[in-house]
């Protein structure tokens, strides 16, 4: 089992508790993004296209802890950018683990071997290494040769040190089922504890706009891959129902509040993938976001999305409602033959709006104002 049994039990108990309280919306995973800066410039990434003053911003240790306190989710995924560029990351992780939160530290692994001594194996902690496929595929995806080999070497070193390690595999148009299945075989042979996979989200700021999968291609690709994986012991860190969804067998609506994001701008509306606005507090995010305006069928930018940040929570909630269904899928694996589940109609979706410039301009003004205030304090300080 890719997810430790105690983690599965605790998260399951947390979900049942929310249902008993009749809470309509609640978080499952806190997506914590302490910085945007990265040491790669991947063609399919829309997370790093900001001016240098914004890329230089960092959440403080206290801001990260406050985000956890506000949100209260049992699992925290620390992403970026590249989190290992944050000088206070070891302290952030140590203090989150002291709160007995399950923490996944996402990394491209370029700095992993160098930073390993700053962390200790812990049953609540796992490295989550970005690998989009075999050597040729991954190096092309991250636009730099040699990254795959360095990541694999770091994975092996981390496993030797006793860490839990999973991989995060984003799939793009043009992926071949046989090649992806072989890659899953290879990472299992490396000894990784689990695989997280999903199609890439079509970030509007991503340099490569030609290789994002639409929903129909996503479903067929994963059906083909899972068919090749029948009888193999691939371990996924995701719900069996989410994998069944990827293969076209579930009609889920997005649950964007299930994985709320806190970054240097604030609490991002409506989800990890879309920056349509920002809330100052988690309470404001949950209560003031117009959730009904987002998701496949509601908004043009969400039309082809099948990413775990929106749909994994839908699958987990469904598992609580239909325990026999998840048991069946867990035992048999995702369905790879037969008719697919009905697709959500896009007929009434609203057109996309674009707010990137507005958010950047606002943040740049805030940064400039803070710098001006700091200079004023320094100038006015009395000489000793």
Automatic annotation (TrEMBL):
Keywords assigned by UniProt, alphabetized: Iron, Iron-sulfur, Metal-binding, S-adenosyl-L-methionine, Transferase
SUPFAM superfamilies: Radical SAM enzymes (SSF102114)
Superkingdom, taxonomy of origin: Bacteria
Pfam families: DUF3463, Radical_SAM
Entry keyword Metal-binding: yes
Any GO molecular function: transferase activity
UniProt cofactor(s): [4Fe-4S] cluster
Domain Radical SAM core: 22-241
Protein name: Adenosyl-hopene transferase HpnH
Originating species: Lichenicola cladoniae
Native organism taxonomy: Bacteria, Pseudomonadati, Pseudomonadota, Alphaproteobacteria, Acetobacterales
